[in-house]
Design goal:
38% helix; alpha+beta; 641 residues; disordered N terminus
């Protein structure tokens, strides 16, 4: 036994020596190479940090585990903000897109949301290529089994192979892999994704260090063979006639597109699905964690909305050169034979061939109230969480957290001031602020309704809002900043021209009558006409030679920006006033030494929440769930304001 202990000790010394030789100390280690991990690694590396990206499988970097699409309502705004900051999600999406649509064009520009179908394999390949082109990014294929911590600071990671990799900062982006458990009917087995093992050890270590954890679930639908579908029985969903793109850089818009399709469930489909409810892990109680409220499983839909005769199913191709099809709206964990029988009852799916069944997955997460606004944990210095580990759902929500965590990890290592985005500056700011102040007990998804300043936080002006801010910390390039300054200057010049150019009644009255708008009786400024509902710049083209000549000098993006600024000037001004009022509260600092338990004039819930979250400003305190306006008034008096 003594001899064995000596050998073991020698082997440990040798292994540690080899680790030192193999791995010098990194500035930032990113654990996990999903959407959050990729953005975190790219951001930190582009800011000059030496980065190690650790992933279980080099072949699944940036894999789209669920639907092959990026963007959507509010999510599209996030992708544009990521791009404006210098992230890669927008660029990768543009290069791998097979269809582009701008959603909600019938509504105001605050609701316009870009969405793209992606080629799943191209998306992952493009992400890996971009990361591999960065000399500051190294890769290691292994599972991280634990964290190295010294004196309350992160010191690196330990892998399942026993390798210890030293680092000054660590970003955990574990997705659904922490103690992941997959459910299909009455079967369940460990895994972070189908055919991929779960990660163990990290949750247990974090809990031992004082972290609070919980369980959540998500799901995915079956994948089918597109050759077995009858598209003639479905509704075709085309891309935009003139497709746009996500990135503000020089990526190219799509020259050709693939169609998606729409079909519907029926009572017959629902009847088949109900035959498996007694074997559903959700209804049998084997799944404990809550799932995403706004992306329910098909069995949850027909249970919660029993009066609905049908539910919409989106049939989405997985790429240019594959027959695999994603069945959006049919997420399920029912037994595979029930899934298959129900699919065959859907119109157009009568002869369907299934590639693999849908499944549900349970995984560990850590309530994000344990983080600072930088996404650094409060318990361990330079340890950051991003993505589903924080209780969010969605590629876009994960990617923006990864970006922010990567930025702040690099800044912390360089001993520079942290980087934050306010709620009035971006949807990313709204998301982070919601997570830190309110936490989440179910998978958090971004919606436009979560933002107070939707008119300011549009998808078209994300670069104007954020690129200069990112350039100041060394992430957004000089070329990006130059482009933004050009856009600001050109837009201001065009707005001035439109507000000063007058048109005669005989030039525009015919168009106004056609639009059902009141005709003019005297010369009127173009800016005044643009302030009318349903009158846009395109309606005025060809009616005034001076206007046509001027507009030819401007890119479509600049013309759109000028039109929105004029048309929604009143709304924009009102929101800016609200922002100014809120900033007054944000500027009132709350000192860490305050003892909320001694403030008996505020509610017991407020004392508990304020003590736990420890807000930095009065503005942050006002957004904490359970803290009322009267509690804020007491706080203002207490701190002498």
């Amino acid at each position: 036994m003594k001899h064995g202990r000596i050998v073991t000790g020698v082997n440990t010394l040798v292994l540690n020596y080899l680790c030192i030789r193999m791995f010098k100390e990194y500035d930032v280690i990113v654990v996990g190479a999903g959407h959050a991990g990729c953005e975190a690694a790219a951001a930190a590396a582009n800011m000059g940090a030496k980065v190690m990206l650790v992933t279980m499988n080099m072949q699944t970097i940036a894999q789209m585990s669920c639907n092959p699409a990026m963007g959507g309502v509010a999510k599209g705004q996030i992708v544009r903000e990521i791009d404006a900051l210098g992230g890669y999600s927008g660029i990768v999406t543009d290069k791998s897109a097979i269809q582009f649509r701008m959603l909600n064009l019938s509504k105001g520009p605050a609701m316009w949301s870009p969405r793209a179908q992606s080629d799943r394999m191209m998306f992952a390949a493009e992400w890996r290529y971009m990361l591999e082109q960065n000399k500051n990014v190294d890769f290691w294929q292994d599972t991280v089994a634990g964290l190295l911590i010294k004196d309350g600071r992160i010191a690196g990671v330990r892998t399942s192979l026993g390798m210890e990799i030293p680092s000054k900062a660590v970003v955990l982006t574990n997705g659904t892999f922490l103690n992941g458990l997959i459910h299909i009917g009455e079967k369940n087995f460990g895994g972070g994704r189908v055919a991929e093992k779960a990660a163990t050890g990290i949750t247990e270590q974090l809990i031992s260090l004082g972290f609070e954890s919980g369980r959540m679930k998500t799901g995915t639908p079956p994948r089918v063979d597109g050759r077995s579908l009858n598209y003639n029985l479905m509704e075709e969903q085309l891309g935009d006639e003139v497709p746009q793109k996500f990135s503000y850089t020089d990526t190219k818009p799509l020259a050709k597109q693939r169609s998606c399709w729409i079909t519907y469930t029926s009572d017959a489909v629902h009847d088949v699905l109900r035959t498996g409810f007694d074997r559903s892990p959700m209804y049998s109680g084997r799944i404990k964690g809550p799932g995403p409220r706004y992306c329910p499983s098909i069995e949850d839909k027909i249970d919660r909305f029993a009066s609905k005769e049908r539910h919409q199913i989106f049939v989405e191709p997985e790429g240019w050169n594959t027959v695999e099809v994603y069945i959006n709206g049919f997420s399920t964990s029912l037994p595979e034979e029930v899934q298959y029988a129900a699919l065959k009852k859907i119109q157009g799916f009568e002869d369907v061939k299934m590639f693999r069944p849908g499944y549900a997955i349970e995984y560990d997460y850590f309530p994000p109230v344990q983080l600072n606004h930088t996404l650094e944990t409060r318990l361990i210095k330079n340890l950051f969480f991003a993505g589903q580990i924080n209780g969010t759902t969605g590629y876009e929500e994960a990617a923006c957290q990864g970006l922010m965590a990567g930025i702040n990890a690099a800044l912390s290592v360089a001993e520079k001031a942290p980087f934050q985005i306010d709620r009035s500056e971006g949807y990313i700011g709204v998301l982070v602020d919601d997570l830190i102040n309110k936490g989440t007990e179910e998978p958090y998804r971004m919606f436009t309704s979560r933002a107070e300043y939707r008119v300011l936080l549009r998808q078209d002006n994300a670069d104007i809002r954020l690129t200069q801010k990112s350039h100041a910390i060394g992430l957004a390039s000089d070329e990006r900043l130059h482009r933004v300054n050009e856009k600001i200057s050109a837009t201001a010049k065009l707005i001035d021209f439109l507000r000063n150019l007058s048109v005669d009644p005989d030039q525009v009255n015919g168009m106004l009558e056609t639009k059902g708008s009141t005709v003019i009786k005297q010369k009127t400024k173009v800016g005044q006409l643009l302030s009318r509902p349903h009158i846009g710049l395109n309606d005025l083209i060809g009616l005034n030679k001076n206007l046509d000549t001027e507009l030819l000098q401007y890119e479509t993006e600049f013309r759109e920006q000028a039109e929105i600024s004029i048309k929604y000037e009143g709304y924009i001004s009102k929101e800016k006033e609200l922002v100014d009022k809120m900033l007054r509260l944000e500027n009132i600092i709350i000192h860490d030494a305050i003892n909320y338990h001694q403030l008996h004039s505020i509610s017991s819930e407020a004392r508990e929440k304020l003590s736990k979250i420890k807000p930095k400003t009065l503005g942050q305190a006002s957004r904490i769930s359970g803290v009322s306006p009267s509690d804020i008034a007491v706080l203002m008096i207490h701190i002498g304001r």
